[in-house]
Amino acid sequence: MDRPGCCGGAQTLRQLPGPDAFRRAPLRHGPLRVPPVRIVDAPRFAWRGMMLDVARHFMPKDGVLRYLDLLAAHKLNVLHLHLTDDQGWRMPVERYPRLTEVGSWRARTRQGFGGDARWEERPHGGHYTRDDLREIVAYAAARHITVVPEIDLPGHSQAAIAAHPRLGNTDVVDTSALRPWDRWGINPNVLNVSEATVEFYENVLTEVLEIFPSEWIHVGGDECPKEQWRASPAAQRRIRELGLADEDELQSWLIRHFDRWLAERGRRLVGWDEILEGGSAPGATVMSWRGYEGGLAAARAGHDVVMCPQQHTYLDWRQSEDPDEPVPIAHARTLRDVHRFEPVPESLTDAEAARIIGVQANVWTETMDSARAVDYMVFPRLAAFAEVAWSPRPGTVERDFGDFGRRMEAAHHARLDALGVEYRPPSGPRPWQRRPGVPGRPRDGAPPAR
Fold this sequence. Notes:
The structure is a single chain. By secondary structure, this protein is of the alpha/beta class. The chain has a single domain, classed as Glycosidases (TIM Barrel, Alpha-Beta Barrel), CATH 3.20.20. Helices cover 34% and strands 13% of the residues. The protein is built from 16 helices and 14 strands. The strands form 4 sheets. The protein has an 8-stranded parallel β-barrel with strand order 1-2-9-10-11-12-13-14, surrounded by 6 helices. Helix 2 runs parallel beside helix 4. The chain is globular, with a radius of gyration of 22 Å. About 3% of the residues have low confidence.
């Protein structure tokens, strides 16, 4: 995954002259001066990533390019691009133009979570062109960043079903009435697993492979409710034909199919930790988001693992208990919480620990409807995450949060200012983000489902 260290070295060198080196144009004439220093440095993990959800709220191309610059500045080398979900389909597929004609726009948007949430009564959507995506890939490559695309299946698929109703479980629900979803959470409308649907997604992924050279292709696999499959005569018949035990094995069969399909084309499948349920796909890389358990099980079973447990790496969770936090969902995850994240549990053997190939911060955008909102939720926590991703295991060199805070105050806030990042300052929400009384905090403090 990692390229030669010249790019990381250049970013280190960029930090030495001061924050003006992070501006897009020089403010002063003459050479930049750097102090004499000797630096011995290397990343701990090969995969140092951020997942950006552009399906829930669309981020136009220029915003994605800007985030690639921000990832590079923090020595992160993977952008996991969440391109499809119930609420929107963002990648054009020449063979199936309705995926973006119908699937990329929803009629309205839910603001917040819970019974008191409000509606924004205007359409939301958008999609990239194929050349936009090629430009994103090339821009990333110039910064030694790999773009990993995600096409979510078999759950989180209502936008696709709205565009092509035959993809749904038509024997139990009138899929012709479905539209891209305007709510958040777990959606009961999932793909059927007929041969025609499998072929449809093979055709989709064929076009994905044409645009994205990444070794890894993400197929989701998370939060797939099985109620429609249990009620569907066609799904039950499929289970019997394939000799499977239940609906969990039916999903596992689908994931294993695409694991083989991608391997035949020289690529590797990656999915969320639910892909372990019902039997794992042999070549799959597992992203452990529901805590550490999925990653532990995957590493012990011989799978490569990217650790992204929600309690440390979900940057859509609120940043403090401050009542002014905008749309304060889930539990508070502070800067300190992110900085103390240790990706490799001590319970793993050395061989199992070697299976932890990387770490990732996840940015789900249900509550982020603008680049300003994304900045506020992501930074400065992404800086803490980047230090975790790069630094040696604690015990080799201790991660000192007090020292981290002093360095942020002394230099890195100024770098973020120079980069134009509207981060959450130590004093709390920025004035434009203070929205006391905004509905949305779950009454029990539980995180919303994706």
